[in-house]
Amino acid sequence: MSRAVKQPVGQKRLTNIAVVKLKKAGKRFEVACYRNKVSDWRAGIERDLDEVLQTTAIFANVGKGVMAAKEDLLEAFGTTDEDKICLEILAKGELQVSDKERQAQQDNLFKDVASILADKTINPETSRPYTNTMLERALRDVHFNADPKRSAKQQALEVLPLLQARFPIQRARMRLKLQLPAQHQQALLDSLDAAGGVVEGIEQAGAHSVVVTQVEPGVFRELHVFMQDATQRQGRIEVLTAVNSSSSSSSSSRPAQQRQHPRVAAATAARDADSAAAGSGQRVLYARGCVADLPEEYATRKERFAELDQLQSGWQVELSSRGETVDAVFYSPAGTKVGTFAAARRQALAAHKAALNL
């Protein structure tokens, strides 16, 4: 029985690669990259080109090891500088990924959408936020498929109506601080009244009024236009936080008359201003420490934040309250302040991907 004769191959085959290809001037050009590094480069996470490219050589076909002719490079790019050509191909080219990589990207994007929804929505029946796990299950129930070409935030806002059709869920209110000349205060209160806003307090700061209010997220643009136009750009708007959990419960427990008519009389305004000033001081509920050590009273948050340690161990969190709102600030294993859970998850995910490539 004859055996097939193996011919020696005089080429070193590239392995574990991702190919980025660009068609220009009727020719196809390809570069060989490390897996998972192209997306990091495009997102600005990775800045070292040597960590992205396996070689700066320009190929006509990476799989066959066929190099691009210099004449073709000059005709298509106007230069033979390989570094410049590689940068253009990385920026404009199409990334060829395997089915497993595509599925991994899809899963990560799906989790990002659920994470954003967890940060921005509440259950209106209990005024409490949902966990990531609950929202992931809800997204699957409405047959949501993440689109890799669009941002997670955009998709989270678009899928919300689908979730609302089947589950009790709504966007958490925004807590804003509005500062404007005192003569425009009544016009602002009228605008808030029409928009269904809830005024928490009013205080005077010299010739200016400072109004703390809760509004629906969709009203923010309207208020921003008012602060720019009606006050001749003398007004200032500041987002304090998204209102969920206990702060929403506090708002919903107020008398219906106050929720429907947020005008505050002078005596009431003074009392509310005092309480707002007293509540504006930040109080630490859980000093900076490990996520796993969060007390049981924060079990919902603990379950949500545990994903960080699964991706990259050593993350820390600090819980604090400003008034009745609980804020979480995250610190990376290196000790740097990252901020919100969504930002911390993105950084931990990037570190996890980098560790897999070592």
Short description:
The chain is built from 13 helices and 15 strands.
Labels describing this entry:
four-stranded antiparallel beta sheet, 24% strand, 4 domains, Arc Repressor Mutant, subunit A, alpha+beta, Hypothetical 12.0 Kda Protein In Nam8-gar1 Intergenic Region, Chain: A, Alpha-Beta Plaits, 358 residues
Fold blueprint:
Layout: E1 17-24, E2 27-34, H1 37-43, E3 59-61, E4 66-67, H2 70-77, H3 82-92, E5 94-96, H4 99-120, E6 121-122, H5 132-141, H6 152-164, E7 170-171, E8 173-181, H7 185-195, E9 198-205, E10 208-215, H8 220-229, E11 236-243, H9 245-252, H10 256-260, H11 266-279, E12 282-290, H12 299-311, E13 316-322, E14 325-331, E15 337-339, H13 341-357
Structure description:
- This protein has 358 residues and is α+β, with helices and mostly antiparallel strands.
- It folds into four domains: 17-96, Hypothetical 12.0 Kda Protein In Nam8-gar1 Intergenic Region, Chain: A; 99-170, Arc Repressor Mutant, subunit A; 173-279, Alpha-Beta Plaits, CATH 3.30.70; 282-357, no CATH class.
- It is built from 13 helices and 15 strands.
- It has helices at 37-43, 70-77, 82-92, 99-120, 132-141, 152-164, 185-195, 220-229, 245-252, 256-260, 266-279, 299-311, 341-357, and strands at residues 17-24, 27-34, 59-61, 66-67, 94-96, 121-122, 170-171, 173-181, 198-205, 208-215, 236-243, 282-290, 316-322, 325-331, 337-339.
- It has a four-stranded antiparallel sheet. The chain has a four-stranded antiparallel sheet with strand order 12-13-14-15. It has a three-stranded antiparallel sheet with strand order 2-1-5.
- Strand 13 (316-322) and strand 14 (325-331) form a beta hairpin.
- Helix 4 packs across helix 6, helix 4 (99-120) runs antiparallel to helix 13 (341-357) and helix 12 (299-311) packs parallel to helix 13 (341-357).
- The two termini are 45 Å apart.
- 28% of the residues are buried.
